[in-house]
Amino acid sequence: MNLAFRAASEAAEHQRSDGGKGRRVVVDLGNESQVVHVPRFLLFEDSWKYFDYLNKHIPWTRPTIRVFGRSHIQPRETCYVASAGLPGVAYSGYKPHAYSWDDYPPLKDILDAVHKALPGSSFNSLLLNRYKGGNDYVGWHSDDEKLYGPTPEIASVSFGCDREFLLKKKPSKKFQGKKGEGERPSKRPKMIEHPDQHSFMLKHGSLLLMRGYTQRDWFHSVPKRAKAEAVRINLTFRRVLE
Ligand SMILES: O=C(O)CCC(=O)C(=O)O
Ligand SMILES: [Mn+2]
Residue ranges under compositional bias (Basic and acidic residues) (predicted)? Predict the structure, then answer.
């Protein structure tokens, strides 16, 4: 798809609530997958206070993980916080210790703000990531673990260095459409064309929500960026099913 067409079609899919602060962009990825981007979710100054607190107080670790049968040091630091009594989370052969919300009270304030911005949401766990520079990254993956259910909402709040967040459609397993026999082109329902890659610049104090079938149908990543020298902290709030 050429870039001009892509820009026009994305603009048509976006709903912009207002032009300034609190602007919310809803991107329809097709097939009941959506992303909501709120570039200025938290106030700039408050966001630096959260950044400094998290940078200093979270017990960051760089665990060894297994990818395609080989051990690697995870290319970013991490920590996990969850409500008591939830089933444990595991990814890439690593089972993080679940810290308590009570240990880090500012996380509860951020969680409250997320719940307020997303009526009906009720997150009970949080994966934190710290990218110490442009060599730290998260590769292509989806958070499609069974314990999040078939249509998980994942709310991502970012602090510090701006980093690009990419979404790429998974290859489809089967041919999904069926041509009606003897149907004339003019009678076919109008199809909205959805690009199969998207990019979001996740800025200091921003919120990005993935919902619907985004984890089933799309991969996401935060690639290496030589010029992103400063530290970035990202929080992904999730709901573990009980
Ligand atoms: O850092 C980000 O923006 C995304 C992190 C992520 O995808 C994850 O922790 O699963
Ligand atoms: Mn993820």
Answer: 178-193
